[in-house]
Amino acid sequence: MKPLSKIFEDAGRYFEKGGRFEQYYPLYEAFDSFLFGSNQTTNTAPHVRDSIDLKRIMTTVIIALLPCVLMAMWNTGYQANSALQLMGLSGPDGWRGTLMAFVGCDPESLFANFFHGALYFLPVYFVTLVVGSLWEGLFNLIRGHEFSEAFLVTSLLFTLTLPPSIPLWQVAIGISFGVIFAKEVFGGVGRNFMNPALVSRAFIFFAYPAQMSGDQVWTAVDGISGATALSQFAGAGPGGLMDSVSVTWLQSFLGTVPGSMGETSTLACLFGAFILLITGIASWRIMLSMLLGGLICSSFFWLQGSGVNPMYNIPPHWHLVVGGFAFGLVFMATDPVSAAHTPMGQWLFGLLVGGLAILIRVANPAYAEGVMLAILLGNVFAPLFDYFAIQANIKRRRLRHG
Question: In degrees, to the nearest 5, what angle opens at C-alpha 57 toward C-alphas 54 and 60?
Fold first, then answer.
């Protein structure tokens, strides 16, 4: 790497201020920082409390997401291979079928499941990464801002929240909307008040609901219906609620069920939560308060019960393992930019998001997943929570010092 580093150092003078390619410095800096890290140091009085920087934070989040990524590829392939076996087909259509002919479509094969799932996951991630990076690069060049590793996390989060059957052109439109209107119009990295990945997903959901909802979007095989546990609960008949669900609580916890590619496994999310908590990247207050808010709200509905709306009768522990509750709790609600920052604000933020997620999920059976909207609404209220927390601290200090 030393010869390559020397080449970058020699080329740097052409991109610095006064150089021939000064306007392209953000592009040069992005490659240099990505490959070799930043050489910027502080020259004034010591004020840095630890060695962590934005690059290390984003790298840690990507590592925490790896269990969800691996589960996304395996489960996507497992669901598809199981559906093909059920239909008596040897493989999928098109170019994926040509590639799968070399490995087979046996749902009992670990490699076949990973390989088949990767054929859906990787194209979606590649389109997200390329299109989003182009938009960020354009705005950075215009403004003269440095490139940030933050989009690597945004692109991965967005991909993990999508169904495997989504058209790639919709992926491009969704990430374009999120990057432009939820991030760049407010100034770029660190200035957005909403989570760009969630805004991108919300835009696709409301713009193209046919490709983002319904039982047939969760299994990557045409003509196969793969109803999620939440949709099965919502459509429960007059019989017993649990008799209407074809999956067990353990299956939902492990993630071997239909759903968005990276949101099905609560176990994978727990691995990610452990990494984020021991490194201090994510707020334990937000995680715990969102969990408490969800449990309190779901317990209220469960104890009340309903003979009309079956969602009232879902046991609280089921709410934690179905849909995107665990994924939202660990990775989305804890976004350090769009979430609350004060300790008290984080408690209020988490309680609001957890309670709203269950309220939307239960009280509106037509939309059985409320985590996305709950977090976005929580992002709107986060600055208000911080404001009241700060004002309360100021008032206490004034009273203390008379």
Answer: 150
168-182 and 110-143 helices cross at what angle (nearest 10)?
A: 40
Helices (H), 194-342: 196-207, 229-234, 249-254, 266-278, 284-304, 316-319, 325-327
Q: How many CB atoms lie within 10 A of CB 44?
A: 5
Rounded to the nearest 5 degrees, what angle is found at the Cα of 102, between the Cα atoms of 100 and 108? 65
Q: Is 41 exposed, middle or buried (0-12, 13-18, 19+ CB in 10 A)?
A: exposed
B/e letters for 77-90, b = 16+ CB within 10 Å, e = fewer, are bbbbbbbbeeeeee
Contact 358, 302 (CB under 8 A): no
Cα dihedral 22→24→25→26 (10° resolution) = 150
Calculate the average pLDDT of the chain: 88
The token duo for 110 is 């670990």
pLDDT band at 42; cut points 50, 70, 90: very low
pLDDT of residue 210: 85
Buried b (16+ CB within 10 A) or exposed e, 179-199: bbbbbbeeebbeebebbbbbb
Neighbours of 298 (CB within 10 A): 27
Q: What are the boundaries of each domain within the chain?
A: 2-36, 65-221, 231-402
